[in-house]
TrEMBL record:
Protein name: Pyruvate-flavodoxin oxidoreductase
Short name of one Pfam family: POR_N
Organism lineage: Bacteria, Pseudomonadati, Pseudomonadota, Gammaproteobacteria, Enterobacterales
Domain Pyruvate flavodoxin/ferredoxin oxidoreductase pyrimidine binding: 13-104
GO molecular function: oxidoreductase activity
Keyword Oxidoreductase: yes
Keywords assigned by UniProt, alphabetized: Oxidoreductase, Pyruvate
GO biological process terms on file: response to oxidative stress
Top-level taxon of origin: Bacteria
Database matches in PANTHER family: PYRUVATE-FLAVODOXIN OXIDOREDUCTASE-RELATED
Length: 104
């Protein structure tokens, strides 16, 4: 049995089910981004046998824009954020919803 915290559990599931991970470290989600970056650096594979591409952006807006672009190409993508970071993503989230682009 492995004991991990919530951030570790979320990072593990997201890493294994993503093709692109756009990160901008922001507390309290920075540990998830750091873990995903470390796993990718070590060549850990996702469920499809590929190593997800981890891209560190300069802002939360950049991170969600990267997710948007990846979704448009059909890639499964992830970003980790906090409540304050989510507020900065709202304009792009409205755009995704308006385009009827599926995302979680």
């Amino acid at each position: 049995m492995i004991t991990i915290d919530g951030n570790g559990a979320v990072a593990s599931v997201a890493f294994r089910t993503s093709e692109v991970i756009a990160i901008y470290p922001i507390t309290p989600s920075s540990t998830m981004a750091e873990q995903a970056d470390a796993w990718a650096g070590n060549g850990l594979k996702n469920v499809w046998g590929d190593t997800p591409r981890v891209v560190e952006m300069q802002s939360e807006a950049g991170a969600i824009a990267t997710v948007h672009g990846a979704l448009q190409t059909g890639a499964l993508s992830t970003s980790f954020t906090s409540s304050q970071g989510l507020l900065l993503m709202i304009p792009t989230l409205y755009k995704l919803a308006g385009e009827l682009t599926p995302f979680v």
